[in-house]
What does this fold into?
Amino acid sequence: MSSDDPHPSRIVGGGINTRESEQPVVVTQMLGIDNSDPIREEALRARFLSFDPLFDAASNLVAHQLVLRGRAAAADAPAELRQMEEDMLLTGLYSLTQGGLADKLPLLVRISPGVLFSDIPQQLNHRQLIWCVAIDNEQHLARALALQDAGLAFCPTLNRNDAIVLDSASAWRYLSCHANDTPPAVAARLVVEGVRHAHTQARWPENAWFKGSFFSGDTQPAEVSREQAVQLDLLAIALRQSVDTLIQFFKLNPDMAPRLLAISNSRIGGLSRPAESAAHALVMLGPQRARRVAALLALAGKQPDEAMRHYAVTALTRALFMGKITRLSAPAESAADAFEIGLLSIAPRALSLPVETLIRKLGLSATRARALSAHPSPEGALLQLAHACENNDVDTLTLHAQKLEIPLHQISIAYLDALIAASALDEALH
It folds into this structure.
């Protein structure tokens, strides 16, 4: 995907484009959050907002949880520090809800009980929001139930040492518990945290949601299926060929054309007017955007399920993030390469192929092959930085930030910007 524009892409007012992004709007004052203390501000910059996925028993993506990355404040940390972390989480949530991020998937947000008695839940309420909270006294219980009666959704945490939530179990649609707990006999949907292995799911109700590292998605079949072959062909064309070749591909594979048209006519495509056909869309998009939209479709497939949509959104997030970071530390012309590596980084999982097979079938350059194979390289370091943001690997994050000489708060802004921009893709793929 050779670039005709050196700037990294993002979505600004609709569409993948290459204009410089603006800083996120500061909304702390609207929420009544004190952001004037320099110490608080510096600590804030060391934290990162991101999404943790939740899956059902069949490993389908069913929800996200907004989380704060970075070294979390310890339980015995000063209350000021813990408050600062929650302030950032709520500030990010405000930006997301105001920007229309919430899609068809629920979004879980964990708050402290004290937030129940503020105006924030009502101010930030959205039909897809689920508020997670540890309720440990009758006052918290009464307030949460009153807010639920007003239309908000809550997911209280079951506490082994306090039965107050369990005693009120019939009042809740969701209940949070740990994978090591004994599954309670309740009608509520259980949100099971701390799942490390897929077999853990077997002892939980079928409608439970799971959060943890059990979802790998790294199966590697010995042979490439027909659908995989079509996706690989499309990905290879998107990487190296002209728009005319892309048009020919969709003529030969008309069953993929409707999905391409849907993406092109969405906020991802950013067309000034709706396209009427795949060929029309590709011409209107222009070479760079056409190749990128086609590559995203190749990763998602013609009938993407929740998991495949998750892969495609992850790929776009990494691509946007790596392009943005590249512009902060390297010549602008390198941003296109970083964008492409970010897209391709999810391809082994999305296509269920070993990375070596992918490199060979796509004929990738040595630079891209080194980055995707985890061999030391500048591009590989950027990819490791993206992984660190996703996985809350603070040590790796700090190490690469120092090597790149990029302040942590700039990395935070770039990653959250990428998350918000890429979120529009999931809606387009439905």
